[in-house]
Amino acid sequence: MQAPHCTQAAPAGVVLDGHQLADLHAIFAECFAARYNTVLVRGADEPVYLPATASQAQHHIVYAHGFYASALHEIAHWCIAGPQRREQEDYGYWYCPDGRNAEQQAAFEQVEVKPQALEWLFSRAAGLGFRVSVDNLSGEACDPMPFRRAVHAQVQRYWQQGFPQRAGLFIEALLNFYQTRALFEPQAFRIEDL
């Protein structure tokens, strides 16, 4: 899974807009470390999910280059993955890197709708902006509007039908930590902002 719209790296322990990576790690750990034996790990290159092994006691959600948005995106994937998926590297999902043709891009976008919808919710709860990412800079050009519409529609479904359990818990923790509850409402999620 590629990190969406990451444009700047932050120095160790610090992220832009006053957001500290250490805070995000602590919020995640408080919500999930004990119950799910899972930790958030700052990676150097590509993000990846690594299940626990005999030599690695905890499951690792590895995000790219110290990007806060990458961490939120990888947490979103984890919040969607069921128990069997969480026992497989990168949840056992298909992934084709940047440079996808139109058919591959359509498949990529289909599996990215829910994670990017959750990432948008997480970003808003943390008081950050969000832009969808088609993550295919060197591939065939595509119209991003259908994907934007799909992500927006998924966010609205989450508001109507409820958030996935782990995602809801994480959103609540972000809202409490960043004190953004007043900004977190269905009307705040506008397709024009994507």
Automatic annotation (TrEMBL):
InterPro entries tied to this protein: EpmC (IPR007411)
Name of a matching Pfam family: EpmC
Protein name: Elongation factor P hydroxylase
Lineage, broadest ranks: Bacteria, Pseudomonadati, Pseudomonadota, Gammaproteobacteria, Pseudomonadales
